[in-house]
Amino acid sequence: MERTQPVPATPARGSPPHPARPPHLWQVDVLRLAPMLGMIGVHVLLFSAPASSRWSGAALIVLHVTREVFFFISAFVLTYALSADRYVFGVRAFWRRRYPVVAAPYLAWTLLYWALLTVLAWPRHPDVRGLGVDLLTGWFHLYFLLVTLQLYAVYPLLAWLVRRLRRHPWALLGASGAVQLGLTALLQYRPDLIPSGVLGFFIYAPIELTSYQFYFVAGALAAAHLDECVRFVRRHWRGLRQTLVFVLIGAEACYLVNLHLGQSPPQASGVFQPVVLPLVLAALTGTWMLAERLRSWFPPRSVAWRRIRVAADHSFAVFLAHAVLLIAVLRPGVDRVLGLGDLPWPTLAAVRFVLVLTGAALLVALLRWTPLSWLLTGRPSRLPHWRLRHWRLWPGAPA
Q1: What is the pTM of this model?
Q2: How many domains does the chain have?
């Protein structure tokens, strides 16, 4: 595997402070949409289907991969954006640029959701301790940002590893994959083998970096060797399509085996199990292939791609805001008012998905016209007076 894109290095004397960005990857716009849509689907399904439903579990084992896809894309976008020709970066400058654009929305939305739930639970007194727990552990879906902040902390080390092992990427990927498979096998099938002193650490597996280390490594390597990855996909198009089907069938077979072993549907469709790794790679490959097909149908500057890019640019904010709409549609009496009370749960989940997605998109569009746009959406305000000011304050954008 030859390196096709230079990876970040330490700053060189005389290097340009603002080198040109690499070309825009239109395929990544499609990739960025997938985790947002998938996570909304997961959350709607969790609150619409009976917890004991085997059918919902069969859907969740596939949809659950969206969090790993999100973290893969985060590392991929970071590496691609920082690996243009002659692009070098300093660690402090990297942290100074990246941390505010994730930490600020994390703090703002954590406070907003805490206040929202406190108001809905009125007249209960505000739970200040609960706010502290939310900030430390990530409320509901906001742990995505908490893990992203951890990625930023170790990314200079990851970039160094990718650079040093540029001639041996399979060794790095294989070692990381072996650790990921071993860890998830223990968590899913033999947690009794985990020492009691360490078991408590795994309670926080969803919110800590090591649980997703393979996807960070794979994302960085894919960006650093992008040309070869793209050639491989295009050369083995038909075989990959068949492989995607086999992986999907295999994932559902593993789900049935887990049920046969006595696991409940939520356990059998859990996030941390070995089959998730090939399923994530299949999801990423399939989404990239879809993007390649769209590129063959529509020119890059066409209306279709412009709309896809706008949607991708707003996907981060829609992901952050969708729980506001989820809380609203789950309020007592809402189903009766909307005439959804007698619907079977698959139809109910589909209707709620459309309501939450549409409502979140409209909310984000509204927030973009407020002075709080950078804080809540990660994008500059559309208000002319605030646009330049906040662009200087927050020069980056979430990966």
Answers
A1: 0.88
A2: 1
